[in-house]
Amino acid sequence: MAPTYPGLIEPLQLQEVTKKASDALLELQYPEGYWWFTLEANEAIGAGFIQLMNFLGSVDEEIQKGLVARILQEQREDGSWGLYFSAPGDLSTTIECYFSLRLAGFSPNDAPLLKARQFILSKGGLTHARVFTRIHLALFGLVPWEACPSMPPEMMLLPPWAPMNIYNFSSWARASIVPLLVVFNKRPVVSLKINLDELFLEKPKERKWKISHKTSPLSIERLFVLMDKGLKYVEKVPFKFWRKFAVEKAIEWVWEHIQKTEDIYPALAYGAMAFKAFGYKNESPQIQTALRALKNFQQKQGEEIHQQCCISPVWDTPWSIVALAESERALANDPRLLKAGRWLLSKEVKNPQGDWRFKNPEGKPGGWSFEFKNEYFPDVDDTIEVLAALHSLELPEKEKREAFDRGLSWLISMQNDDGGWGAFDKNNDLQLVNKIPFSDHGACLDPSTPDITGRALELLLKLGMNSHSKVIQKALNYLKKSQEKFGGWYGRWGVNYIYGTWCVLTGIQGLGHENSLQKNALKAVHWLESIQHSDGGFSESPESYAKKRFVAYSQSVPSQTAWAVMGLIAAGRSHTSSVQHGIQFLLDQFREGTWEEPYFTGTGFPGHFYIRYHGYRYYFPLLALARYQQAIST
Question: How many Cβ atoms from other residues are within 10 Å of residue 63's Cβ?
Fold first, then answer.
């Protein structure tokens, strides 16, 4: 059936933009077959690398110069640095940037630091810094180690049933906590010729380092604060029979993981610091492996160096494949996409010793991770998208079947008891963990989330599962319970309710007439249509996490518009004016092969860490255009 173009959509413009966007994305493919785009976060990442070099006593002046240029370029008019584009200034990020500029030779009286200091003092000064900022400053003797929460290395020896066992923490928290157990035990201090007294409102004897949890006197959080005080006394006891063994176990764990992963900042930086504190030389394989990974995250941009927090080729590649394959069916057999598919097959994670096994001992190895190399942390989200990409390609069955089946089996085995899926671990949802003083960012767990669950549901239904399957029934029950009162669903890994709602609406699309969430879907559709901007686009600010309600950017954002439109299309609304206006917005905003998008639409830790995925402006709008064309052709 020939497509009909209802309303205002001009078919030639739609086809032309789709073709140009597809060609532009193909041009960005690397010779090896993958796609890899920049991950942009806040400037505390670059500041942290400056601190790491100075802690190791080995500063690469060219790298430091480039990082400093980037930090200065991103400073706001009020002297602060923020968590994302257009965000208000953030106290701890500003403290870390200020400190790194001091390490790089700046004077407190230099103009950028004068402005930053004024901002810091207006927010209460250094005693109000977050836990991780205090740790960074304690390494240089600028705040006392007592200002940091106690984390005894004996945590490494706790049995699986113990609440504070390291495998009850999320993978990203665990990867930082274990090296920090070594650092906290050794309490190294690098002497400096500078201090940060100018950042305190209080006199030295009046400085009080409070835990930021806002709690009642009878809360669990308050109990942990009192326990933390007790642990500080225990740490001073000279006879610690198990401590040496625990520290050695921690350093062994760090080395096992670092040599087989390209994980994330700060885990790699803390790993290098732990090795240094333990007595390793800078030239050791342990420290050099961590440094090499972090340097591989760096991108030179003119005079500036941008320090990425991580790298995302195994995320960017399958999304690019799916967008291209759906934009033109012939591309499913195109040599360029088949090469990309084979590259993905080469990145399968088969390590039976991955951290996921502690919560999922019956599961068999399979799946994919986020980076070029990460044998300990395959994740559900990447595995879903790689399987979707492989399914869309016309690769010979004999090439992909075994890896595909392993990945699918692993994915199903990772379903949580509540019916949903988390990212890296199974049933990683012990709320007690998020109450400890160390977790002032509230991101030490990896529970089920609607966005990943919706995406898992979409894949499984596409592969032939039906609503009578126990796996599907459990997922549907979870999604029913997790819908917000206003109609949307929470998005853990993309900002926020628009992303989560798209994932769920697309997930339940495959149920057809057996959809037990029809009323839920209708409520979500009405909500999406109610938040559309007058120009046809959609947007959502990370502020929605802090306020726990939908908050829009003042301007429409292409990737978020694509998510909203695809959600509406999945709900059968392709012929509505809302979808048509959304598609027209994407067509009108298209410029030179892509869409401009300075906004951060990816989520690292809700409320604390956000990511601008530079690939999102390429493949998500293209995918929305492709799915619109598919919808009006049927």
Answer: 18
8 A C-beta contact, residue 510 and residue 454:
no
Q: Between β-strands 590-591 and 594-595, what pairing exists: parallel, antiparallel or unpaired? A: antiparallel
Report whether pLDDT(138) > 90: yes
Which two three-digit tokens encode residue 400? Answer: 């992909």
As given in the structure block, the two tokens for residue 84 are 């994302």
Show the domains of the chain with their CATH numbers. 40-203+216-307 (1.50.10.20)
**Cβ density class 326-354: b for 16+ within 10 Å, e for less:** bbeeebbebeebbbbbbbbbebbbebeeb
Instruction: Return the residue matching tokens 């020939």.
Output: 2
Q: Is the pLDDT of residue 329 over 90?
A: no
Integer Cα distance of 94 and 227 in angstroms: 30
**Statement: the pTM of the whole predicted model exceeds 0.85:** yes
If you search the block for the tokens 């200065």, which residue do you land on?
A: 72
Annotation marks residue 535 as catalytic: no
* pLDDT surpassing 50 at residue 216: no
* pLDDT tens digit sequence for 510-557: 898 778 899 999 999 999 999 999 999 999 999 999 999 999 999 999
Whole-angstrom distance, CA of residue 488 vs CA of residue 499? 9
DSSP state of 72: H
Beta strand residue intervals within 555-626, DSSP E: 590-591, 594-595, 602-605, 609-613
Which listed residue (263, 316, 381, 451) is catalytic? 381
Report d(CA 373, CA 396) in Å as an integer: 25
CB atoms within 10 A of CB 374: 25
Q: What is the rounded CA–CA span in Å between residue 198 and residue 170?
A: 37
Instruction: State the DSSP string of 329-378.
Output: GGGGG-HHHHHHHHHHHHT----TT-GGGGT-TT--S--B-SSS-BSS--
* Local structure of residue 110 (DSSP, 8 states): S
Structure token digits, residue 281:
């030389």
